[in-house]
Amino acid sequence: MTPILTVEGLGKGFVLHGQGGLALTVMRDLALDLRRGECLVLAGPSGIGKSTLLKILYGNYLAGEGRIRLHFSDGPMELGKLPAHAWHALRRDVIGYVSQFLRVVPRVSTCEVVMEPLLARGADAVESRYRAETLLARLNLPERLWSLPPGTFSGGEQQRVNIARGFIGEHPLLLLDEPTASLDAANRAVVIELIREAKARGAAMLGIFHDEDVRERVADRLLPLENYMDDPSRARIDASQLLQENDHA
Ligand SMILES: Nc1ncnc2c1ncn2[C@@H]1O[C@H](COP(=O)(O)OP(=O)(O)OP(=O)(O)O)[C@@H](O)[C@H]1O
Q1: 122 CA to middle of ligand 1, Å?
Q2: Which of 14, 187, 219, 244 has its CA 20 to 30 A from that of 202?
Q3: If you average pLDDT over residues 94-120, what whole number do you get?
Q4: For residues 224 and 35, is the Cβ–Cβ distance under 8 A?
């Protein structure tokens, strides 16, 4: 079966302006392919570049080198050559992303945060609200919270809002950055179910899961990033000391 995503020769480095322009290479010559209905899990120690890879694939970071292609029935699309404005439609319709932390818009209710990806595609408001509420209920978020903005929610509550927002759009490609990190066992089990349902409808997923049990239950394959690292000792550099690269999109 043709993969939905292929990556070849991917390299990424950062220039640390706060440290005299020191160049930090994170990955070299990374290759992967991902098929529909498959969950590929990124493996490797802290600092190896797992989140960086997801951010490149979502267009937040620019790749230094290499080729990233999405394969559609009418041919491939090379992401490195996409103009910035094209990312909007790509994220709306093709690539979903569940980050570890929710970015909230003040005064927007939880239900509206979750239904927004459907509304952005022109879906019916009543149907979108119903689907948002169904997901929030499955994720055990108390109904009294649905009409409130999630900014003051607990870490685990915010993560569940994020998961509902990430899964509601049923994107063909989903990037999952530790979606179960702040969850209790019951809610981890719901996320595992959501991932399995997404696989069954043909979604391709690339994920980071520190919880070994979750990893074993969702992963079809592991991609150990150690193989693509420049210098293993670099994994210990503390990201908080570094000047942050601006998001590009
Ligand atoms: N915006 C940035 N600017 C400079 N360096 C960065 C930036 N983002 C990541 N890095 C560096 O790239 C390396 C990989 O970071 P990344 O967050 O991808 O690791 P990770 O494998 O996801 O780690 P963890 O498991 O701890 O989340 C780290 O050394 C980090 O310091």
Answers
A1: 36
A2: 187
A3: 92
A4: no
CATH architecture of structural domain 5-94+171-241: 3-Layer(aba) Sandwich (3.40)
End-to-end Cα separation, the chain, in angstroms? 31
Query: How remote is the C-alpha of 213 from its chain's centroid?
Result: 20
Choose the residue to mutate in 17, 51, 236 for probing ligand 1, maximizing ligand atoms within 8 Å of C-beta.
51
Give backbone dihedrals phi and psi of 115, rounded to 5 degrees, phi first: -80, -15
Question: pTM (2 decimals)?
Answer: 0.90
Q: Which atom of ligand 1 is nearest to the CA of 245?
A: 1
| pLDDT number for residue 172 | 97
Closest residue CA from atom 24 of ligand 1: 46
Q: Which of 196, 192, 225, 194 is nearest to 211 (CA)?
A: 192
Tell me, what amino acid is at 21? G
**Average pLDDT for the chain:** 90
